[in-house]
Amino acid sequence: MFGLFLFITALAGWIVAGLVNYFSDVVPVMRALSHPVCSHCGVNINWFDYLLLKPCPNRHPRNIRTWLVQALGLIASLYIWTRPPSKIGYILGLILILYFGVVFVIDMEHRLILHITSIFGSLLGLVTGTISHGLYPTLLGGLGGLLIMLTLYYLGVLFARLRTRRLRAMGQQIDDEEALGAGDVILAAVLGLMLGWPLIWFGLLVGILLGGAVSILLILWFVITRQYKKNAWMIFMPYGPYFITSAFLIIFFPKVIAALLPR
Q1: Do 247 and 191 contact (CB within 8 A), yes or no?
Q2: For the chain, what are the domain ranges?
Q3: CA 145, 148, 150: angle at the middle one, nearest 5?
Q4: Please, are residues 219 and 172 in contact by the beta-carbon 8 Å criterion?
Q5: Nearest CA among 93, 68, 23 for reference residue 251
Q6: What's the Rg (C-alpha) of the chain?
Q7: Are 62 and 55 in contact (CB under 8 A)?
Q8: pLDDT (tens digit per residue) in 111-160
């Protein structure tokens, strides 16, 4: 019986990971659910080959992200089966993994937080938040996440203006990059629903610190390779993946996070 449950749990994780890969491959490009296509050449891949992770008809292999997501989905399913999130349970925890995975991959690869994922995330956040900590803290967390990130968004607008002046002074091409996008503001509100108040402020803080740590590593790399003056003002990182990582840790590893919170 244990072996059967183990197989079913692993299969569920593999399916959820497959959905993460499918949505991440198709939705940002087609903006709708459609036939899967090769990320290298754009040719259609039949469903059987796609599900079995086979190369496209032109023999282009699936990218490394596909295999990494499949492995992580399987591991995550087995983990939350043995340690399901408090009050949420295994099934809802697996749906959260699906949402987190799609937002993470799409934002990392395309720097997009799509409206459809925000709508789905809002509904999911309302349900999981209400189950976890009640309706009032859920709504307050959503409002808190929105206001906190909205403040940071306008600070980002100020930084973008300073950056534009810097690029113009250096004689480089001006672009429309933003330090934070409107999608990040909506994502913060969604995560606020999931985490509730006051935990959302800590979730956003952890996400910002994670992004800052990666930024420091990038700056050090530019300094070591002597590319700082050329690249430092041209690199913008998506912050969505770091906020998603933070929320994931808080929900699925609460004991670790509780040890870090001030008492």
Answers
A1: yes
A2: 1-82, 118-263
A3: 100
A4: no
A5: 93
A6: 20
A7: yes
A8: 888 889 999 999 999 999 999 999 999 999 999 999 999 888 888 777 66
Asked if pLDDT for residue 164 goes beyond 80, the answer is no
Please report where in the chains the tokens 């198709």 appear, as a residue: 26
Q: What is the pTM of this model?
A: 0.86
State the average pLDDT over residues 167-181: 60
Cα 127 from Cα 23, distance rounded (Å): 22
Residue 217 clears pLDDT 90, i.e. is over it: no
Which token pair is 30?
A: 């087609």
